[in-house]
């Protein structure tokens, strides 16, 4: 987490510049939700960063939602209008939790 909070910084390292300040970076890329990314491309991203999934929260969705067979999960529900949900991860199981506390497994 040494780079946490550095999104507005300029980096000499081109890789760090891409990761933090590019609209194509894993932090800011919105193509996950527009069907713009082939699953093999996503698998390459996951492999590159040595992760099994990407959890995002910058594009509003009606519910906490899993995409690409659970490899991408969006947690940004419309909190400002009273539609809050949460993501609960327990023993490699992923659940959408609604405002009443009801769990629905999404992965």
Please supply descriptive tags for the structure shown above.
107 residues, alpha+beta, three-stranded mixed β-sheet, 2 helices, 21% strand
Write the layout of secondary structure elements.
Blueprint: H1 14-21, H2 39-48, E1 54-56, E2 65-67, E3 72-74, E4 86-90, E5 93-97, E6 103-105
Parallel strand pairs: 1-3
Antiparallel strand pairs: 2-3, 4-5, 5-6
Explain this structure to me?
It is a single chain. This protein is 17% helix and 21% strand. A hairpin with a 5-residue loop joins strand 5 and strand 6. Strands 1-3-2 form a three-stranded mixed sheet, with no helix packed on it. It has a three-stranded antiparallel sheet with strand order 4-5-6, with no helix packed on it. The model has no long low-confidence stretch (mean pLDDT 84). The radius of gyration is 15 Å and the shape is globular. By secondary structure, the protein is an alpha+beta fold. It starts with 13 loop residues before the first helix and ends with a strand.
């Amino acid at each position: 987490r040494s780079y946490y909070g550095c999104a507005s910084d300029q980096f000499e390292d081109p890789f760090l510049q891409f990761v933090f300040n590019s609209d194509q970076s894993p932090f800011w890329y919105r193509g996950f939700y527009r069907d713009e990314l082939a699953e093999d491309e996503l698998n390459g991203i996951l492999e590159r960063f040595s992760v099994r999934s990407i959890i995002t929260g910058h594009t509003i969705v009606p519910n906490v939602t899993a995409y690409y067979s659970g490899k991408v999960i969006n947690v940004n529900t419309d909190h400002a209008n009273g539609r809050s949900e949460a993501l609960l991860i327990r023993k490699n199981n992923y659940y959408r939790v609604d405002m009443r506390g009801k769990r629905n497994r999404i992965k």
